[in-house]
Specification:
GO terms for molecular function: glycosyltransferase activity. By secondary structure, the chain is α/β, with parallel strands linked by helices. The chain contains 15 helices and 13 strands. It binds ligand GMT.
Length: 377
């Protein structure tokens, strides 16, 4: 049996799929007996209750008056080095290249080369920031100097190579869901509060950033609701939320659309729905579509980024070109009107989530990467 490891994890703890994946991974590694140290500016929101083998170290930023911009990155690097030394960490696993990988590399220089750095790329760290000339050299440096680099889809690996001229090895580590949390929940009592028995429920969950094309969700729903009695649930909040509230009003759809805000029990909310809508402009993976898949809910979305690696068109959902709301609505209408097709697709979703994107597979994959960089294969 291999030694248990001491692992430091840094991520954006309060938002986004990257923080969710990092936190869930940490919890699973701790369950397997590894010692996991989260080193972040706030408690990761998915950490939940007290867990054995999990420790939390808060990064405090100096507010000294000469700093025009409080130097979070330096405080993080310093904390990473401090915790690595104090706890004798084997490695730092950082999620998101900027600034986390750079800070981890600085910490490694302070501690010594025995401390390994594993960097996981999640998407916008490459697809958005990688295009910014002012920072792209730094991202390239962080990727090239990490002891291992992983990315959450083949598409993201390709983008990383193309945008940043990277030719080093990058491991593919698809995102995952914990099958003990994401499964079709019993919503028989709750559903009646959102829809009549004859109505279908469509759902969209995101941070309402422009890249999510939330306006397309409203357009798709406007078309679907003309053909199928239905309701739309919006979960989450972000910059485009208020525009969407106005758009829903303008289209006279307010009585059919519920804005639920942020929700913690995502599996429960998703289980209420019949279809997930994800028409993003860009999506390195689309964790929310996987969460839906694991609850037996097919996704209708865009053929963008890593989404087609997750959603098999015609089997676990339907994909159309970005912005083609006509086609997406037509897929939704057909699916919602055809019970036999729907049940088959829901079953395909459960199988695919369970056998291809399940926590057991991914945790082992990451462990193998850790042992490899430590030379303990
Ligand atoms: O999608 C977001 O806005 C949040 C972002 C993040 O950094 O958390 O999500 C990215 O990472 C997720 C987890 O790996 C992926 O599921 C999302 O597809 C990816 N977002 C984009 O590529 C836009």
């Amino acid at each position: 049996m291999k030694d248990k490891l001491k692992i430091g994890i840094t991520c954006y703890p309060t938002l986004g799929g990257s923080g969710v994946v990092a936190t869930e991974l940490g919890k699973l590694l701790a369950e397997k007996g590894h010692e996991v140290h989260f080193i972040t500016h706030s408690m990761p929101f998915r950490l939940g209750k007290f867990h054995k083998n999990i420790y939390y170290h808060e990064v405090e930023v100096s507010q000294y008056y000469v700093f025009r911009y409080p130097p979070y990155d330096l405080s993080l690097a310093s904390k990473l080095a401090q915790v690595a030394k104090m706890e004798e960490l084997d490695l730092l696993h950082v999620h998101y290249a900027i600034p986390h990988a750079v800070c981890a590399l600085l910490a490694k220089q302070m501690v010594g080369s025995n401390l390994k750095v594993v960097t996981t790329l999640h998407g916008t760290d490459i697809t958005v920031l990688g295009q910014d000339q002012s920072i792209s050299d730094l991202i390239r440096y962080a990727i090239n100097e990490s002891d291992a680099v992983t990315a959450v889809s083949k598409d993201l690996i390709k983008e990383t190579r193309e945008l940043l001229a990277i030719d080093r090895d990058i491991d593919l580590t698809y995102n995952f869901v914990d099958k003990r949390v994401y499964y079709p929940r019993d919503i028989s009592k709750l559903r009646g509060e959102f829809a009549r028995p004859d109505e279908k429920i469509l759902i969209h969950i995101s941070n309402f950033r422009p890249v999510k094309r939330v306006q397309d969700v409203v357009d798709i729903f406007a078309k679907v609701s003309k053909e199928v009695p239905s309701r739309l649930l919006f979960v989450g909040e972000g910059p485009d939320l208020s525009k969407m509230i106005s758009k829903v009003k303008e289209l006279g759809l307010s009585d059919k659309v519920t804005f639920c805000g942020k929700q913690d029990d995502v599996a429960q909310v998703i289980s209420l729905a019949d279809v997930m809508l994800l028409p993003s402009e860009k999506e390195s993976f689309g964790l929310v579509a996987l969460e839906a898949m694991a609850c037996g809910v097919p996704t209708i979305g865009s053929n963008a980024g890593g989404i087609p690696e997750l959603i098999t068109h015609g089997e676990t959902g339907f994909l159309a070109e970005v912005g083609d709301t006509e086609q997406m609505a037509s897929y939704a209408i057909n699916l919602l009107k055809n019970q036999v097709m729907y049940e088959q697709m829901a079953q395909n979703c459960l199988n695919r989530a369970r056998y291809t994107f399940c926590n057991d597979i991914t945790t082992v994959q990451y462990e193998e990467i850790y042992y490899r960089v430590l030379g303990r294969e």
